[in-house]
Amino acid sequence: PFWKKTLRKAKNVLVKKKVSTPGTLILVRHGESTWNKNKTFTGWADPDLSDMGLREVEHAARLLLEGGYEIDVVFTSRLKRAIKSTLILLNELDQTYLPVFKSWRLNERMYGALTGLSKKETAEKLGHELVQAWRGSLKSRPPPLQPTDTYYPGRDRRYSDLTAEQLPLTESLLDCMDRTKPIWEDKISYELRQGRNVLVVAHANTLRGLVKIIDNIGDDEIQEVSIPTGIPVVYKFDKDLNTVQPKNIQQTQIHMNGLFLEKPGLLKDALKREEDWCSRVPEYNSTIFKENRPMSSLERSLYKLNATRELGEWAGQFVDAMGEEEEDDGSDGNMGRGIMMKEDAIWERGLHDLEEGIQFDPDYPEFHSAAPSSSTSSTTSITNTGFSSQLKLNDKRKDEERINPTMITNYPCLTPLPTSSVIPGMGYVPVRRDSVIVIIRHGKTEHNKLGLFTGWEDAPLAKDGIEEAREAGRLLKLHGFQFDVVYTSWLSRAIETAWYVMDEMNELWLPIIKSWRLNERMYGDLTSLSKQMVAQRHGEEQFKAWRRGYDVKPPAVSSFSKNYPGNDKRYTKYLNDLRYSVRETLIRSIEAGKFEKHRKLPKSESLKDCNDRTIPYFTEHIIPEAVNQGKRVLISSSENAIRGLLMHLCEIPEEEIVGLEIPNGLPLIFDVKSKCVKLLDDGTGRDPLDVYNFGKSANYLFRPCENEDGTFDE
Description:
The chain is α/β, with parallel strands linked by helices and 714 residues long. Helices cover 38% and strands 8% of the residues. Helix 5 crosses helix 6 (128-136) and helix 18 (531-538) crosses helix 19. The longest helix has 19 residues, at 297-315. It starts with a helix and ends in a 13-residue tail after the last helix.
């Protein structure tokens, strides 16, 4: 209607943000690949980064940090060496939450039949002049690939969205450069005009193509331009998107207005000197290698406490308890018996239950209320009311059938992968093509290991958390899983888990959609505190209500707390689907001395609040945009967000969902057809219920899987 169009135009006039200066463009060529190192024609082949390449990219990120550069959006190719370089850069810059767009138009030049051949050996065999013409001439094309060739891209599903005309079988330098024009005109230049800072991580020849357009370089002159690995090149623009020459022209290349943040060759020289020092000086400790992340005083203290306990457990293996000197253990007046701790009695009973195949959860009030009274002398004569109720519950469970999760194994009846996609060392692996949802809780963080409330604090994965994520990827690959799209949160532990899973599955090229609505529950003022600290300060009952109550919120954080997401740029700058808060807008405006709008970000959340943002995102976006389109979906998130998803998918009651535990790094397979959760057989023969703790509500998670016709899904 006319009135709607009029209102929309008026709104655009009032709300439209005027951008006087375009954003900054940063170009980075990926780090050295293993094929760069051994002088192999690479093109669209997909080798990994070399050790030198990893160091180059980390160094590039530190140059950007030193220069104070900020990034809003990232573009890269669909090749692993560029994508991994992007992930390393964002990790170093602490901006893993940024959107990353992966385009085939930024792939390296297609070298055709030269792909995979040694540059030196090819020149010796075919002649240096001919090979140099293919490499250096602007319009000369190598022989094309054939459909039967190993590196023919038509069999690679990452390019399944390309038409036959778009799929190159060979390219000249000019072809490759022309291929980059649409992404510059339609995407990158648009983002720059909106005032956003753009990072492009790509390859030598596609970056030369962009530079040719940006600096309006002629066909002959562009052959004199080279882009070294791992050195950021920074472009500034005027309002018409013309390049602005930097003040320090000594750090620019001929024909270019892009500023090199470091003189090419310096890093390689430094690494060679370091290698020389390592060989000459014993016990030399490199200063360039990445150090472990710094710890807070609380983390440091808890680490030392845990280390002391672990040392005691380890040393206990070698101590003869019968031969120790008698020690005063405070048992005088106890008829000569040692101290019987309530916790020991409870755990003794709990371990007995496990042996009987009965699930128990030590975090629940009915479990802790099972502590023996002071008048009891052994665990077999406990008369505590709470414990009696636990015994009755256990007796009831004994009468029920033991929970048996549905396990997925590979079956020979499934269609095998094409010959060119056979997994090295594994042979033919069946591919699962039906729509599926795989949910995985991020690998362990140091906060998880120390028992700290994490919430929206951005704790990275611990070393064993990385291994958990990689093992999940290996297991999914072993069972023939493939994905079409990945969803994750804005928290680095979930994003990194998705990266490692995809890396193991060779699917780093997949689109990753990141949403804050898949974030962990916001724990408010409990964030960064240990669970023991909270229980001691506020009492065990209050602690359990905050942790295990469905609709109980912990204390809220202050507007000026470091744990308030309103003080984190990722939420203030990029979150745009929450209403504005009058109170926070007033506070921020007074603080800034000018009007500043501020959205109503959570200061604390109950599990219900967390579910109220997670479940609608799943039903309104993931289901219609992916699942209903037949796509295979991977969701990497945190425990409470996953509880919400499983509560919806498995119809778990509110009063029971708090009893569900989600193990770190374990893929949970939700079969869309049979509407049930399955686990993957890891080949060890172990019962997953003996290995992982799913909590007392595991029976809701692992109901028998039924097909549409009512038969059981085997």
